[in-house]
Amino acid sequence: MPYQSPVRDFTFLFDKVVGLDQVSATEMFAEATAETVEAILTEAARLNDDILAPLRRNGDLHPAVLENGVVRTSPGFKDGYKAIAEGGWVGISAPEEFGGMGLPLAISTAFNDMISGACLSLGLNPLLTQGQIEALEHHASDEMKALYLPKLISGEWTGTMNLTEPQAGSDVGALRSKAEPLGDGTYAVSGQKIFISWGDHDLGGNVCHLVLARLPDGAPGTRGISLFMVPKYLPKEDGSLGAANSLRVVSLEHKMGLHGSPTAVMEFDGAKGWLVGAPHKGMAAMFTMMNNARLGVGVQGIGSAEGAYQAALEYALDRKQGKTPVEGPGGIIDHADVRRMLLTMKAEIFASRAIALACAVALDMGRATGEADWNARAAFLTPIAKAFGTDVGCRVSDMGVQVHGGMGFIEETGAAQFFRDVRVTAIYEGTNGIQAMDLVGRKMMDGGEQAYGLLEEIQSLAESARTSHAALAEPVWQAAETLREATEWMVGQEMNDRFAGSVPYLGAFARVLGGYYHLKAAIAEEGEAGPRHKLAQFYVDRLLPEHSALATHAMAGAEGLYALSIEELTGT
Ligand SMILES: Cc1cc2nc3c(=O)[nH]c(=O)nc-3n(C[C@H](O)[C@H](O)[C@H](O)COP(=O)(O)OP(=O)(O)OC[C@H]3O[C@@H](n4cnc5c(N)ncnc54)[C@H](O)[C@@H]3O)c2cc1C
User: Fold this and answer.
1) Alpha helix (H) ranges present in 72-183?
2) How far apart are the C-alpha atoms of 272 and 113, rounded to whole Å?
3) Which of 78, 201, 340, 448 would suit a FRET pair with 347, their CA atoms being 20 to 30 Å apart?
């Protein structure tokens, strides 16, 4: 059974769990009615299931290569990309004024989830362009918008983000790339960037690099960084391609997975660039792109988990091994431990997908209403959506390998590819450790207000369901209470004590949010306890309890982490 986009799950989540109706009730997104959304998702599924999913193996077996300075992509990627661009899928949420569909980010988030299950490496390309569109929309001059946005939105041109340098990874402020004013309003950008996804390709059009670099009077650290548009070909006024810019791909990385996505070392040698936003305010502008990309990367994890789950389920139905304890199809699916793995995979995908879509809805509401509360909620949920979504991607695809047994370790089943491809999502776009520090640091500068607001919402739903859904509601209420205590502890600590517990704290928060959305799903299911209720019960009984251990870990402080000296760590 080839990959099938889970359209029914998306429509259920939108209608019953994350409240897309609030978004379509706003003037800005009035066109996003339930019928329109379903029609779009069905069409998106056709593209992903029929055209893109068959390309996944090509990307793995025939990685992008650098030949005579030109990057050649995997077989079929050119046609696959053409189908994405021609379908208008790059610009789902882009402004209509420049040719986009102007639909909520919630819809493009669902699309990004589907494309990640179908073909993660190719899907990364439009994801980066989407982020660039948003950064330009908010920070570029009108002239730059008029020139670049229509081409990016139509998919004729693609976008990249260039932050990382050998000495500047998580610490972006350590970058050394420079930009010298040329006196005509343009800049000469020089420096080396590493790990640049889709830094070059043969899909056609222009490759538009957004590059972080320092102006001569730029202060050290992140405060002195500016953002530049540095295109591969210098565009003429009418948008046609002019001379090649002074930049090149030095090499492509050999990676653990995601082979279909060319990851380039880029050399900018006095390349012509245009400032985006104000001088020295590059980080703010890049953050617009990064926030969008963080949610996008979160759903890369979730979509990959979906692909891995579908493959594991198919294998488990087919593979016979030993006598099973129950009446059923007779495959390994009837063994209790295999059921445990499959249910865990399904329940985790649901929880993480609900969190990501709730984050997208908050972003859409913030945009449509301008209300600070929605923006603050979106900001709080973004690191959780990114880190939990990608952790689920890694864990679920790992379980996918396990369900396959030895055949999971053999490449021809494709189970290992899901695992290898998704691994980087927990690393790029800010490692999951950096996401967790963002959650307990910057996102709790409000004294925990957002966290408490969410916990109240969870407890109030749990209270209202105490009679009708006691076996779900009570544990969810209790878990929220434990998390409230951990939150109180967290906001009262010095930063390094918070950081020491940030990853388990984020994990505990995601666990509780997952319980909340599973409870909502169970409540929404009409009639007798159906599959959503049963899945929620599985989650609440077997996965939610982890929140308690995570909260304990979160509150342990930093001191113990430094208890072993470096000599003791190294055994010297
Ligand atoms: C396949 C791939 C594609 C990529 N695509 C792009 C791209 O398109 N554009 C781009 O600009 N970059 C890209 N990157 C780079 C990516 O964003 C970085 O790898 C990532 O941000 C981590 O930086 P680093 O690799 O230097 O790790 P480091 O920063 O050296 O981190 C190493 C470890 O230390 C931890 N750490 C670092 N600093 C701290 C801190 N202050 N507190 C606590 N822990 C810390 C990290 O969490 C991590 O566990 C890509 C990377 C890969 C592998």
Assistant:
1) 77-86, 105-139, 142-154
2) 35
3) 448
Q: Give dist(CA 78, CA 154) in Å, integer.
A: 15
| Atom of ligand 1 lying closest to residue 198 CA | 8
Helices 415-422 and 282-318 pack at an angle, to 10 degrees, of 160
pTM strictly above 0.85: yes
Whole-number Cα distances in Å, 250 to 108, 169, 194, 198: 33, 19, 10, 13
DSSP states of 212-252: EEE-TTPPSSGGGEEEEEEESEEEPTTS-EEEEPSEEEEEE
* Catalytic residue chosen out of the listed positions 429, 457, 474, 485: 429
The number of the ligand 1 atom at minimal distance from the alpha carbon of 193 is 11
Residue 525 CA, ligand 1 centroid: distance in Å: 42
Over residues 52-86, the pLDDT tens digits come to 999 999 999 999 999 998 999 999 999 999 999 99
Q: What is the pLDDT of residue 1?
A: 67
Pocket lining: 112 vs ligand 1, CB cutoff 6 Å:
no
DSSP for 153-168 reads HHTSSEEEEE--BTTB
Q: What CA–CA distance (Å, rounded) separates 76 from 122? A: 10
Ligand 1 pocket mutation pick from 120, 161, 164, 208 by most atoms within 8 angstroms of CB: 164
Q: 169 CA distance to ligand 1 centroid (A)?
A: 5
Phi, psi for residue 564 in degrees, rounded to 5: -80, 130
User: pLDDT per residue over 99-141, tens digit each?
Assistant: 999 999 999 999 999 999 999 999 999 999 999 999 999 999 9
